[in-house]
Each structure stands twice: as structure tokens, then as C-alpha cells.
Amino acid sequence: MFITLSQVALGGALGASLRYLTNVSAMRLFGPGFPYATMFVNIAGSFVMGVLIVTLAKKGGTPLAPFLMTGILGGFTTFSAFSLDAFTLYERGDTLTAIGYVAASVLLSLAALAAGIYLSRELLA
Known about the structure:
By secondary structure, the protein is mostly helical. It is built from 5 helices and no strands.
């Protein structure tokens, strides 16, 4: 249990650090008007989750799942930040932007997950 918890903690630290760097980069590139960083990490994280779920299962890498999936991806993709961003847009009076943000984030994340699964299945077949 301690080893697994250590894997999750280390992965979480790495994922959170990647998330922070993504936020800083997006703020510098696009400014504070729209939560591009959160949308990006949710979509990218969903794609990587799709790739990992297939790859780890096919290659016997499930012992790495706590580090990679719960740790790194859990620290990188945070739907709590997504919820806060959507609510902030709504509270600012940007209701249509908030709805578009929620719809785009959810639909594109699901599409990215499916793309990751199908791509990995084809490459690892």
C-alpha cells in the first residue's frame, strides 16, 4: 500500500507541475479572458487516458496505473478547476460562453478519449 501511495503522490506532483506550467504558458499566450489551459488539459488528459487504458492493458503495464493514471493524469486534469472556470464565466454574466465552454470541454474530451482508445488499439493490434 505504501509503495502504491508513493507512486500516486509522485505522479500527482509531476502532473500538478505540468498543469501549473500549462496555466502559466496559456496565460502568457492568450491572456486571462478564457480558461484555455483548463480546457486543454482536460482534452489532452482524456486523450492520454484513452491511450494508457489500452496500452497498459495490452502490455501488462497495469502496475504502472497508479503512477500514470491516478497520479500524473489526476494531478494534470482537474475537473474541479473546470467547474470553477465555468461558474466564474457564468457569474461574470458570460452565460453563453460558459455553456459553450462546458459543452466543448465535455464533448471534445469524450472524443479525445475515444480517439486515444481507437488509435492505441490500431497501433497495438
